Amino acid sequence: MNTHYSVDQVISLHKRQRFKEAFPLFHQLALKGDSLACYYAGLYLYEGGYGVEKNEIEALQLFYKSAISNNVLGWYMYANACLYGNYYSRKEGLKYLKKSADENHPDALYMLSQIFLNGEHGYEIDNDKYEGYLTKAANHGSEKAQKELATLRKDKMSRDIKFLRGHLI
């Protein structure tokens, strides 16, 4: 196996959907400490598929290694795995989710919006925080947040019109 690939070259393989070639190279670079390679190798192991056997424990370790190297993508995936994977850690998950949201990671912002919408992980339902994080996620490119925000605004407008009609008649 060629050990002279840069992480950018391996990401290029990944983007061209050459997953079976990319994973061993990501894994090799991750073992050498590359934080972005840790993130990508972790993704392959967390999801499984593409010739890679699912291994959530190793994925969590790689996401953590990426996270402690101050990689925003690593922060988000480590948080996601801690909060919604098989090895729940509320404290770690929320710590790294907030860090990635503070850096305006759109998926982290969206995840926080859902936590406040549903009252999860020790938080009470908080519609103001839900809408705030949802708006921020939408503004930073989250398509899910953009769609949800459009629906929310449409529903609010519909309720406002019904309210006004009820009071103007």
UniProtKB/TrEMBL annotation:
Transmembrane segments: none annotated. InterPro entries: Sel1-like, Sel1_AlgK, TPR-like_helical_dom_sf. It comes from the Eukaryota. It holds the Pfam family Sel1. SMART domains: SEL1 (SM00671). Belongs to the sel-1 family. This is 3704_t:CDS:1. It comes from Acaulospora morrowiae.
